[in-house]
Amino acid sequence: MRDLDELFTALAKSTFRAGFKLNSKDLAYLQQKGLSTVLDHAEAFIQSRLAPAVIENDGKQTPMRGHPVFVAQHATACCCRGCLQKWHRIPQGRELTQAEQAYIAVVLEKWLREKAKPA
Predict the structure, then answer these.
(1) Which of 5, 45, 48, 50 has its CA 20 to 30 A from that of 70?
(2) Full-prediction pTM beyond 0.85?
(3) What is the DSSP letter of 56?
């Protein structure tokens, strides 16, 4: 797992990762449901889509849009086990630990908080 400042500096240098933004629908959803509820969704997505040792559709399990957490996952490279290994140094082929799941949730929360700030 990486230091968050180091991670976010690296993500900002990636044209692909830095290109993700919350659209008006995502922002409205985040405002309506509240960050706490959206983070509950994030934890459920992490547990079901990232935590298992073997993921049948790894690399394709996270949609590109449709929920603020999905956008955050792609923006922070928390979208699949391959990206978790490349960007976060979390190995593939084994179940994620509770600490790793908590780390991913913190990464997503940091990105969502930053992007939800008024312009």
Answers:
(1) 5
(2) yes
(3) T
pLDDT for residue 118 is more than 70: no
| Residue range 29-60, pLDDT digits in tens | 999 999 999 999 999 999 999 999 988 888 88
Q: Please answer whether residues 71 and 22 qualify as being in contact, where contact means their C-beta atoms are separated by less than 8 angstroms.
A: yes
Amino acid at 41: H
Are 62 and 74 in contact by the 8 Å Cβ rule? The answer is: yes
pLDDT at 107: 98
**Residue 119: band (very low, low, confident or very high) from pLDDT cuts 50, 70, 90:** low
Question: Is 38 exposed, middle or buried (CB count within 10 Å of its CB: 0-12, 13-18, 19+)?
Answer: buried
- What is the number of structural domains in the chain? 1
Query: Domain span at residue 109?
Result: 4-116
Q: Taking the CB of residue 3, how many other CB atoms lie within 10 A of it?
A: 8
**In sequence order, which residues have a C-beta less than 8 Å from that of residue 106 and are 6 or more positions away?**
4
* Eight-class DSSP state of 99: H
Whole-angstrom distance, CA of residue 2 vs CA of residue 28: 31
